[in-house]
């Protein structure tokens, strides 16, 4: 007795036709993305065109009389140094706060802390800069005086510190500015840790510290670089503080 298997109908080869609204939305989205790229390219070309006379100008026409590259080298060094100090201070604190909010704090405390962090991340950078210039820097003058007297051998604490506008102040202000950003992004990263991994760690007898660090680290490590990169880019692009310094000491005043 022969048996026959039912044959399946051939799969449709024609692509599903898109509705007019989908095609319009796709076109508008694509055009918007391309427009942004064109605008950025235009801004870059305009800035390069306007800066070209300064790039080829003789050294006598540049402030300081040492040429354009010598003049800007100190500005670039000061900006990079202050950004590095901010990241060195703010990154560990931000990750630690995010770890506390997601794994240690009670729910009644974690929710308000999350709201406060989000509000701090929304504050414009110019507000942090004005606070640093008029409030934070003068308040640190006595601290810097003590550091200069007792730890002046360390370049970062060397004087003079009459105004408080030092490289260390710039790094601290930028650290405060990027702290909410790193905390908010790291918090979202830690929330992506699979619950099964956390429960497995607890089932194996892991402590709270092992439970919060070991399961989170492999999952969060690949995703932890965007918060750090964005935090590095943020202070590097801020108008204040952008210290111009020719040496390491904190006495190099910000301009």
What does this structure look like?
With 255 residues, this protein is mainly α. It folds into 2 domains: 21-56; 68-236, Orthogonal Bundle (MetI-like fold), CATH 1.10.3720.10. It is 67% helix and 0% strand. The protein is built from 10 helices and no strands. Helix 3 packs across helix 6, helix 4 packs across helix 6 (167-191) and helix 6 (167-191) runs antiparallel to helix 10 (225-236). It is flat, with a radius of gyration of 27 Å. Residues 236-255 have low confidence and may be disordered.
Characteristics:
mainly alpha, MetI-like fold
CATH topology grouping of the largest domain: MetI-like fold
CATH architecture grouping of the largest domain: Orthogonal Bundle
SSE class: mainly alpha
Mean pLDDT: 77
Quaternary structure type: single chain
Write the layout of secondary structure elements.
Layout: H1 20-56, H2 68-104, H3 107-121, H4 125-139, H5 141-151, H6 167-191, H7 195-203, H8 208-213, H9 216-220, H10 225-236
Helix pairs in contact: 2-6, 2-10, 3-6, 4-6, 6-10
Condensed summary:
Helices cover 67% and strands 0% of the residues. The chain has 255 residues and is an all-alpha fold. The chain has two domains: 21-56; 68-236, Orthogonal Bundle (MetI-like fold), CATH 1.10.3720.
């Amino acid at each position: 007795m022969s048996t026959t298997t039912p044959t399946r109908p051939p799969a449709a080869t024609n692509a599903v036709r898109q509705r007019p609204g989908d095609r319009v939305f796709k076109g508008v989205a694509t055009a918007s993305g391309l427009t942004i790229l064109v605008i950025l390219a235009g801004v870059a070309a305009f800035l390069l065109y306007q800066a070209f006379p300064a790039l080829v100008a003789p050294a006598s026409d540049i402030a300081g009389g040492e040429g354009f590259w010598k003049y800007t080298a100190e500005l670039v060094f000061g900006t990079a140094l202050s950004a590095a100090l901010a990241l060195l201070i703010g990154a560990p604190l931000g990750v630690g706060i995010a770890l506390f909010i997601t794994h240690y704090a009670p729910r009644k405390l974690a929710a308000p802390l999350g709201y406060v962090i989000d509000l701090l991340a929304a504050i414009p950078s110019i507000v942090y800069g004005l606070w640093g210039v008029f409030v934070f820097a003068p308040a640190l003058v006595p601290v810097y005086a003590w550091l200069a007297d007792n730890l002046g051998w360390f370049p970062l604490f060397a004087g003079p510190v009459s105004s408080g506008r030092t490289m260390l102040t710039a790094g601290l202000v930028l650290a405060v500015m990027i702290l909410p950003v790193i905390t908010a992004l790291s918090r979202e990263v830690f929330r992506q840790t699979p619950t099964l991994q956390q429960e497995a760690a607890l089932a194996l007898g892991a402590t709270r510290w092992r439970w919060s660090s070991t399961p989170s680290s492999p999952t969060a490590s690949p995703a932890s670089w965007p918060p750090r990169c964005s935090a590095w880019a943020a202070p590097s692009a801020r108008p204040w503080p952008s210290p111009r310094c020719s040496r390491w000491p904190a006495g190099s005043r910000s301009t």
